[in-house]
Amino acid sequence: MFTGIIEEMGEITAIAPSGDGWRLTVRAPRAAADAVHGESIAVSGVCLTVVGSTADAFDTDVMKQTLDVSAIGSVTVGTRVNIEKAMPVGARLGGHIVQGHVDGTGDVLEVRPGAEWSVLRISLPTDLAPLVVDKGSISVDGTSLTVSAVSAPAAPSPWFEISLIPETLTATTLGLRAVGDRVNLETDVLARHVERLLAFRAAPEGGSR
Question: Residue 201: phi, psi to the nearest 5?
């Protein structure tokens, strides 16, 4: 379990084949300093398991499915990534509940820089559109953010916007994003539960569930 509060920006320093997936080496001194084998670390919003570590880096295996459904599949050596270690019991929930289970990806459609703020418009997969609401929470590349605008329900190409403060621009990879970049999206787990409950209620009695 994570909160979407990024602790540091890491860097992919090595990519090696591992079965039908990859083994990644991520340089992240703060996270690696006390990393232990088997613990979970969110890498740009993807929950991954530590399989080895040094004083300033850790190794993790990424299965093919994760490479296929997340933006992790497009990283290269040198790619900067957002790092967050799992939330300890009793800690403050500074962002929102983030599981590290990516629902899908979106593309940056527009970057509107301001004097201090920056607004990103990001495409939204059609099946995720009902789960994203104005002023609701969303995780973008593992960062807990508040939705500042959404497309109309009937829009043929759904999108949402996030407004980034200076701290987010400098402390996360979102400040590096440009039009065309692919990002990981995780919707609010509470919205997903509500959608599932409504689907059961709408199902015909005795129908397949």
Answer: -65, -35
Q: How confident is the model at residue 196 (pLDDT cuts 50, 70, 90)?
A: confident
CB-based contact 123:158 (threshold 8 Å): yes
Helix residue ranges per DSSP H, 7-77: 29-32, 64-69
Specify whether the CB–CB gap between 145 and 160 falls below 8 A. no
Nearest to 125 by CA among 185, 166, 206, 77: 185
The model's pLDDT over 93-139, given as tens digits with 9 standing for 90+, comes to 788 889 999 999 999 999 999 888 999 999 999 999 999 999 999 99
DSSP-derived pairing of the beta strands 159-164 and 21-27: unpaired
Q: Locate 182 and state its tokens.
A: 């692919």
For the record, the structure tokens of 162 come out as 């996030």
CB atoms within 10 A of CB 115: 5
Answer positive or negative: Cα dihedral of 197, 199, 201, 204.
negative
Q: What is the pTM of this model?
A: 0.90
Q: How far apart are CA 84 and CA 2, in angstroms?
A: 7
User: Encoding tokens for residue 52?
Assistant: 């080895």
